[in-house]
Amino acid sequence: MEKENIIGANLIKFRKEAGFTQARTANLMGATYSTYSGWERSVCKPSIKWLIRIANYYNILVDDLVGADSWKTVKKQLPEVVDTPVKVRVFAVMKGNEINAEGEYYDGKFTVDGTDITKYVTHWRPIPKSPSK
Predict the structure, then answer these.
(1) Helices (H), the chain
(2) Distance of CA 124 to the CA centre of its chain
């Protein structure tokens, strides 16, 4: 499959897996039918905010839509309780602003500068510990 058509092909795949028509999917997501149809036909591409909305709708990662190999670990795979805070790189959308920051995961919560952003996190990855000297 050509790289430029991957988003459209994945939109079709996830929509069909959900058993929806283009019209129903567009309506449920708040997009126009012509816009959604254009995304599937790769006439145009959805913005990052739309990609996040679509991923949340299907309960998948944006990476699954765009065919990326990174960020494979999702927040559901983290244990609820860890003994010590884990340093993480988080991506989130909060009040329309995209966040790409270093933070912590502890007791089932993601924090950046002490602010709980758990419900806004779309992707995260652990930051490897520096080797001990």
Answers:
(1) 6-18, 22-29, 33-40, 48-58, 62-66
(2) 9
Which ranges of the chain have pLDDT less than 70? Answer: 1-4, 68-83, 128-133
Same domain for 52 and 12? yes
Q: What is the pLDDT of residue 78?
A: 53
For 35, residues 6+ apart whose C-beta sits below 8 A from its C-beta are 26, 44
| Spatial CB neighbours of 41, under 8 Å, sequence gap ≥ 6 | 8
Tokens 């905010």 correspond to what residue? Answer: 49
Question: Amino acid letter at 62?
Answer: V
Residue 133 lies inside a defined structural domain of this protein: no
pLDDT attached to residue 95: 74
Q: What is the CATH number of the domain that holds 59?
A: 1.10.260.40
Question: What confidence score (pLDDT) does residue 24 get?
Answer: 93
Q: Which structural domain range is residue 9 located in? A: 3-66
Which residues sit opposite 88 in a β-bridge? 103, 126
> With a threshold of 0.90, does the pTM exceed it?
no
Whether 131 maps to a domain, the answer reads no
